[in-house]
Specification:
- The structure is a single chain.
- The protein has about 600 residues and is of the alpha/beta class.
- The protein folds into 5 domains: about 10-95, DNA polymerase beta, N-terminal domain-like (DNA polymerase, domain 1); about 100-165, DNA polymerase, domain 1, CATH 1.10.150.20; about 170-260, 2-Layer Sandwich (Beta Polymerase, domain 2); about 270-335, Beta Polymerase, domain 3 (2-Layer Sandwich); about 345-585, TIM Barrel, CATH 3.20.20.140.
- The chain is built from 23 helices and 17 strands.
- It has a 7-stranded parallel beta sheet. A 5-stranded mixed beta sheet has the order 2-4-7-6-5, sandwiched between helices.
- α21 links the parallel β16 (about 515-520) and β17.
- The protein binds one DNA strand of 29 nucleotides through α2, α4, α7, α9 and α14.
DNA sequence: GCCGTTTTCGGCCCGACTGTTTTCAGTCG
């Protein structure tokens, strides 16, 4: 494992996973070995999902604040950031081929298998390790090894191909669409008491791997027979008595699980996850001498079947936990103490504050496809009291005179639109670029022509955390700027978000009455849920908006609401749940 | 190696599947 001083969270996570794997392969014989492995895996997981870069936390001496990182690993990371290496880790990796850690990415290959393969096949270097194993398996050199056979060789070949072509994770709306279509097909058949999504889809995570669906029925064979007839399938992967899997175009896998109604609650709970939630829940249950599984709740060796989820949680002495919260972020304690948040709902939303009409504002970014009026009418249809039209700012290359003309023209058109009283208010706004130096891409006089501005980053994603933080704070300081839009600027499956000092940004927003946006567009879902949770804890006001470039995208508000819910947001945390007058007052606009 | 309203020592989730084996280890979610 190569290490250096500026390792990213992803690289550090991989390093910690490698340490765990090394311990599995080279047991020291100590009795706590098993748990040390688990501890390193947990730490790797925590680093991978942290909302700040470890290096930044290290500079602030806050490494141990991450759950799963104790004194020992914090010390190792301290050494890593100071010297670029960790002596203790190097000692552990000694005599192990670097190639083995690359093979861990292959599904079905764990530490033991990886080590055996690299040793037996003479693959040592990390670079190109996957290709070498792939070739060896294709040539039939794996089947002869002890503990391997034709089956496992085939498995390896297929898994590596899968890794190479790994279809990216599905975006939430895409996965939702697929699930809704499958569910509609299933409902054409009678004999099903309930049907629900499972897994990350049911928890409304931003991206989804497989689409998993649960059915309650006393006739599992019939349900499965109907399922495998799903017209859009490209292949039936497997069809057993209680489970079946289909492959859909684009490599999307849909799994179905069927249980009788009297055991459905345990099934639903178990396969909704998350893994971390379930582990924490079982630890909690053990203290009450209860053992949990997908089959039900065991007490003194006796299995209690559970028909619905409410009963499942009630049997543990807790309130039902909304799926969005099941990430082991404190929801179990909150549930026990009956302090779960009352999560915001779609019907609470009173307006959409980020959208683009076809008004020609001479921008260098995309314009929308619908007129100002069409956007307002769609807002009315969705039951909103207000919307904000936030076209991108005109190109800075235009003369100031031209820019002011464009903005005067837009203001007139919005004024006229407001005279028609389609909804209570159409706010005349702009989405303004935050330039690399923190200046806004708009002449000062322009601000007289708008009700308020939302600001966002569309370039210069790479810079130090300190620089990026100052950049945004400078932009937010403008009194007409009210909302920080798609804050991290991440694009799911495409680019990581910008690294900020969130404590500073949130503190500034709270103090100065600036709101932070949860952008609902499928590729963004930005602010990410973990940071929403942080913002909620710090008392920062949020908005949920769609960033629609066409009126039919405005329906996507539900996905932003999902993100808010995953971040523990209640109605009171979201500014655009307020009625028109209260909203105006809260945002400080006329 | 981590962690703490039953513990600063002594615990640490549960079950299924798979392939290669004669009774189980490794991996996964």
């Amino acid at each position: 494992m190569k290490t250096h001083k500026n390792m990213t969270n992803l690289e550090i996570a991989k390093l910690l996973k490698a340490v765990a794997a090394a311990h599995q392969v080279k047991p020291t014989g100590e009795s706590n070995e098993r748990f040390r492995i688990i501890a390193y895996e947990r730490a790797a997981d925590a680093v991978e999902h942290a909302t700040s870069e470890m290096k930044d936390l290290w500079e602030e001496k806050k490494l141990s604040e991450i759950a799963g990182i104790g004194k020992t690993i914090a010390d190792h990371l301290d050494e890593l950031f100071k010297t670029g290496k960790v002596k203790h880790f190097e000692e552990i990796f000694k005599c192990l081929p670097p190639a083995m850690f690359e093979l861990l990415d292959v599904p079905g290959v764990g530490a033991k298998t990886a080590e055996k393969l690299t040793k037996e096949l003479g693959i040592t270097k990390a670079h190109g390790a996957l290709e070498k194993l792939h070739k060896a398996a294709e040539k039939g050199r794996v089947r002869g090894l002890e503990g391997f056979g034709e089956q496992s060789e085939k498995e390896i070949t297929e898994s590596i191909r899968e890794v190479k072509e790994r279809t990216r994770r599905l975006l939430l709306p895409h996965a939702t669409g697929i699930a809704e279509d499958v569910i509609a097909w299933m409902k054409r058949k009678s004999g099903m008491d309930s049907i629900d999504t499972l897994g990350s889809l049911r928890r409304s995570a931003s991206t989804v791997g497989d689409v998993d669906i649960a059915v309650a029925s006393n006739k599992p064979e019939e349900v499965i027979r109907h399922f495998v007839e799903y017209p859009k399938k490209t292949k039936v992967i497997e069809a057993g008595r209680e489970t079946a899997s289909l492959l859909l175009p684009g490599g999307v896998q849909v799994d179905l699980m069927v249980q009788p109604p009297d055991a459905y609650g345990a099934l639903l709970q178990h396969f909704t996850g998350s893994k971390h939630h379930n582990v924490a829940l079982r630890v909690f249950a053990l203290k009450k001498k209860l053992s949990l599984s997908e089959h039900g709740i065991k007490k003194g060796g006796k299995l209690l079947k559970v028909s619905d989820e409410q009963k499942f949680y009630k049997a543990l002495g807790m309130a039902w936990i909304p799926p969005e919260l099941r990430e082991d972020q404190g929801e179990i304690d909150a549930s026990v103490e009956h302090k779960l948040p009352k999560l915001v709902e779609l019907k609470d939303i009173k307006g959409d504050l980020h959208m683009h009409s076809d008004f020609p504002s001479e921008t260098s970014h995309d314009v929308g496809v619908n007129t100002l009026q069409e956007m307002a009418e769609e807002g009315k249809r969705l039951g909103y009291e207000y919307i904000a039209l936030t076209e991108h700012n005109p190109k800075s290359a235009e003369s100031e005179k031209k820019i002011l003309e464009i903005l005067r023209e837009k203001k007139e058109r919005v004024d006229k639109l407001n005279d028609k009283n389609i909804i209570k208010r159409v706010f005349n706004c702009l989405e303004i670029d935050i330039q690399p130096d923190g200046k806004l891409a708009l002449p000062e006089k322009s601000f007289d022509f708008i009700d308020f501005g939302i600001v966002s980053i569309h370039s210069s994603f790479k810079a130090t955390r300190d620089h990026q933080t100052k950049r945004v704070l400078a932009a937010l300081a403008n009194p007409k700027v009210k909302i920080f839009a798609h804050p991290t600027a991440r694009k799911l499956n495409e680019r990581e978000g910008v690294d900020f000092d969130w404590d500073k940004i949130f503190e500034f927003c709270k103090k100065n009455g600036k709101a932070v946006e949860i952008n609902s567009s499928p590729q963004r879902l930005d602010l990410p849920d973990m940071l929403v949770h942080k913002a909620v804890k710090q008392g920062v006001k949020l908005t949920i908006s769609t960033d629609s470039h066409a009126k039919d995208q405005m329906i996507g508000m539900r996905y932003g609401v999902s993100v808010a819910r995953r971040g523990w947001a209640e109605k009171k945390n979201i500014l655009n749940t307020l009625g028109y007058l209260d909203f105006k007052k809260a945002l400080g606009v006329d």
